[in-house]
Amino acid sequence: MADDADRRPDRPGPDDPGRGRRLGIDVGTVRIGVAASDPDGILATPLETVQRDKTGRHLRKLVKLVEENEAVEVVVGLPRTLANRSGSSAQDAVELADALSARIAPTPVRLADERLTTVTAQRSLREAGVRAKNQRAMVDQVAAVGILQNWLDQRRSALRDVDE
Q1: For the whole model, what pTM was predicted?
Q2: pLDDT at 90 over 50
Q3: What is the CATH number of the domain that holds 41?
Q4: Which pLDDT does position 15 carry in this prediction?
Q5: Among 1, 24, 122, 153, which lies 20 to 30 A Cα-Cα from 138?
Q6: In a domain, 2, yes or no
């Protein structure tokens, strides 16, 4: 098995769980942004920001969000450099994804390429006139929306290709 740091992003495909809500997760060192889709998997919207802690309370909260939203799939952002390399942030995301997967099985937890989502989220908030000090509370959710929306768009494309 490949080293966790070398894990590659998943891609939507034939193992798609079908209709239902999906959650997107942006893993940060201090906060975890969470987004949710509509049941048809068309639009991602911000859901919540979860504070990380050393006791694992953040994992319990994520499990609760999966259950409350009846999520059929969870998509965790996998940070990669533009040179397609992993670092400590990627390792952290993989570890959280694996820990969450063990707690919510059989609901699948996928890893999705999240290059530049935080940068894009910060730019979007800045362009929307959100002051820098207020961005911190929102940027993780906006990044989670970007991760999930990219997955939903790829999913629609993959399912369309299967139907053709």
Answers
A1: 0.86
A2: yes
A3: 3.30.420.140
A4: 86
A5: 153
A6: no
